[in-house]
Amino acid sequence: MRLTIKWNNGWAYAHGTGPDGQRIRKSLKTRDPRRAQEKTVQIEAKLWRTGLYGAEEVVTFDECAVAYAEDGGDPRFLVKVTKELKSRRLKDITPRDVRAAAKRAYPEGSNATINRQGITPAKAVINYGHAQGWCSPIKVEGLPTKRAKRKAVEREYLDKLKPHLPERTYALMLFLYQTGRRVSDAIDMRPSWLDMASMRVFIPDTKNGEPATVVITSEVAELIAKLETRHGRIFGYVHRSSLYNTLRRACKKAGVEYLGTHQPGRHSFATSLSEAGWGTKAIAEAGGWKSTRLVAETYEHPVDAQEKAAMHFGKKLAKPKTRQGKNKRKTGS
Question: What's the CA gap between 62 and 84, in Å, rounded?
Answer without folding.
Answer: 9
